[in-house]
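Progress against Task 2.4 (sequence-to-structure conversion) is shown through the following example record, which the project officer requested during the mid-term review.
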Amino acid sequence: MSKLFRGGALSDTALLAREAIQNSSDAHERFKKDHPDVPFRVVFRFVHLFGEEKSAAVEALDLRGMQERRSKYATDPLQPGSALDSLDDPRAPLQLLYVEDYGTHGLYGDPVTGKKSHLFMAMYYIGASTKGADEGGLYGFGKSALQRASRTRAVIAHTTFEQHGSDTARSRLLGFAWWPDLQEQDTLFDGRGSFSDHHASGPGQQSMPTPFVNENADQLAAKLGFLPRDADNPSDTGTSFLVIDPAITPSDLLNEVENWWWPALEEHNLDVEIILPETGEVQVPKPASNTFVSQFLRAYRLATGVDEAGDPNKERLPSKDWRDRSKSGTGGRDLGTFALVVPDLEISADSEDADSTTLVALMRGPRMVVNYADYGKRRVPLRGVFVASDKVNSLLRETEPSTHDRWTTNASADVPKEATEVAAALQKKIRYAVTKMAKDIAPPVPKTNKALTHFSRLMKGFLGDKRGKPNSPATGGERIELTFPQGRPSPEVLNESDVRVKTRFSARVADQAEKEACPVAVTCQLFIFEDEAQSQSRWPVTVKPVTRGHGLNPEEDGSWTGVLTKGKKITFEVESDPYPNLWTVSLQPSVTRTGDWSDQ
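Structure tokens generated for the chain above:
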């Protein structure tokens, strides 16, 4: 569980803001079909307990039992500084976070029914989902975001719902702690501890934790600090999660809610409240007051048709001319709408700030920002917004990883080919539109160099005006010979809008080298020129040796490693992904020595 999102670009706070609201939003979308007038809101309620209230909560949550279990591990399963380290410290509060949604269907269904139970999918199961194509989640990993937000890795859910089928329950309460596995003599524990009524088992079933139900669930919920809910009131049904010892702060959470959910907030599809501990002050996200988010609001209004684009040097709607030419032959599929604007920023010419980078907010159905795509630093930075159409919403969702933070174009066995082709076509169109607008509106580059005459006169007194002996040229690179046997590479036309580079280069140890061989890494990059200068933006290329018996090994980053010699020239074939024919690119193969030269 704890490793699912490890190493990703999103912080634990961002994951909680995105996943918790997304899962609640999906539940509301289903619920409002039968209850269209019930409002939807999500509340993050922070609580700090001291004194007798802390002691009562420690006992009710059996935190001392968790601390005892923790001592069984040879390596501490928790990070230092968790609530378990200060159970008896009167100065340290017990911190709790309640994540509460209202106007949703709740986690109905008896867990023994498996995937038919929303509680089972939300708390027991990992790796799949029964959500529909128009919803945000796919993988049932919301519990992992909740767990990562807890220093004790423990979460308890209290949920109320309408009656469904023959299930007589109207509320349930269940919790889990997800720790590493533990071997005790001949028994292996999987590391999941339950906060449950008892363990029941049936024929052919492994024992599974059983939740508290109805009155027992409600009484225990009150004891644990959950707010009461009325299962007979549709406005009161929903789910509350208790995150024990949260590792996040209210201010950071408010900022992340604004960063990722501002489109839904702008359209009033979502109400979010953050309640501060001790004072009980209620804070609400305000996207227009968020310096970063406010840069995208104008583009969003253009993309959603609220406003119309004005000055083409400041605002554009490139998607009005789009056609989908993906290989799947989908013809004129409506990909969505895309708007670009020049934000009102004060950026110096040598600025290294993020504001000088062109960013595009990508989003689909739930109106959560999937990703802020980076299109490099430009002389005139842009802000863009892409809103996916209903026709490609489910396809783009299929390309997302568990974090829902990008649309991958890499084909794989479990992602439909049509989905990755649509994602590739879309990203190509966005990059082309960004590049074209940046070139159209960028001020011209000076054609002549300006002499710094005043500076030259000042320096003349120090350096004199006589020409000295020129410095010897710096020693060149390694003694490696790299050639293009087919001549200078040139783009190959694929269709009326796309080209690609396909060529070969060869490498060997040069004749003038003192040694016969050396270990190397061979790779090739295709850089995109932006505003008449090479940027660090790269386009995918595939490199592979075609010389028989080359003896090189492929690496995960696409390079090849092995030994080059004087006696054998190794030829490599390079092929780029298709790219717009208006781009200027630079193909740069490289051979890097990775070890000492050898006589062998």
